[in-house]
Each structure stands twice: as structure tokens, then as C-alpha cells.
Amino acid sequence: MGKFIDLKSADGFVFPAYVAEPAGKPKAAVVVLQEIFGVNSHIRAVADGYAAAGYLAVAPSTFHRVQSGVELGYTEADMNAGMALKAAAEALPAPGVLQDIQAAINHGAQTTGGKVGIVGYCWGGLLAWRSARTLSGLSAAAPYYGGGMTVGEEPARQPACPVMVHFGDKDHWIPMDSVEAFKKAQPGVQVFVYEANHGFNCDQRGSWNEAAATLARQRTLDFFADKLA
Q1: Residue ranges making up the domain that contains 181
Q2: Which residue in the list 42, 48, 100, 122 is annotated as catalytic?
């Protein structure tokens, strides 16, 4: 359904983004942020799903500044490679990959002439949370199990747009006590917790939970339908 295009960040850096277009005029745009496994077949399928729901979906390659053409699976070796790439990307001088996400937001706004939402998974969930505070042009953000967003300085961020967050209660990367602390720190954020593990949205992972993924997607679609109209 989609294709890769090149986008340019404010600093002139050119990077690829997977773009999926709806059948008719887009309702709005949704930026889809990858896990630590690249813009792989799963993330492309997620983008295709948002396009099927009527949105222009833009999935920027947030690893491109540290390595091009990343498309990993979900083996232990892939996990280790992805963790190393994430660490390299996080170590970039500020604003790092956030400027690439801003370029994706701008593309969505310019192409559709409408509002832009953002959804992210795993590392992409953390980036979606940061984007909701620091980037311009967002009308809604929906992070999924963003590793790191419930600890350190992250819970103190004050988002500049409405946010809906999805967590799993069996996620060993994100302890439930940190989720409860996040909820107290962010009373204005909608927080949903599912009987599921980290990565429950990904049907290519052993942690996939169809019921949780389906419910979270419907809640996110309803959220976007309201905030991006």
C-alpha cells in the first residue's frame, strides 16, 4: 500500500520515511514511530493500517542518522542489535532524531492540509512522548509501552497536545509502580493498562496479545477521530 520517500530535516539531513496513503482524501495525518527494529514489515503494516482507516501515515526511519537500511526481526540477536542502535541514536547531539520526526510531522501537515497525530511503539513510544512536549504541529499523541517514559525526568514533561498511553501489566521493562507514578504525575493523560506484556501490539513477537492490541488500536482510532477532526 505504501512506499518509501525521502524527507529533509531542518539541518539538511535527508532520510527515508515509509508513507501509506488512504484510498480517498486523508482525514488527517498520523506519524508512526518505529520500535528498535527499524521501519520493518511490522511497522509498515501498522502504517498501512492507519492508511486503511483513512489517514496519511508517515513512518520515518529514526535510525538513519546512525545506520541506514535497518530492518530487524525479533530474535535475541536482533534485540541486541536494536538496543545498540537505540543507544547510538539517543547519544546523538540534541535535538537528534527529534528533528527527523518534526520533518515527518511537517510532511503530514503539508500533504493533507489537516491535523497530525503521532503513535509510537517501544522506543517509538518514548519518542512520541517527547514529541508531544517538544515538537510543533501535533494535535494528539498515543505512545505504546514507551521504555523510559515512566522514569527519570520523563514523567515531568508537560505535553503540549492531548496524550493517550498504553501499557502492559506484565511488562518487565516498565514496572507497574512506575506506571502508577506516571499516572499521578500526569493526571491529564489518558493511561490504559492491559493484561499483556511489552510489545503486545506486534503480531510478529511472542508477546503479541490480540485482544489487547485490538482494544488499544480502537481506543487510539477513537482518540484520533476526536482530536484530529
Answers
A1: 2-227
A2: 122
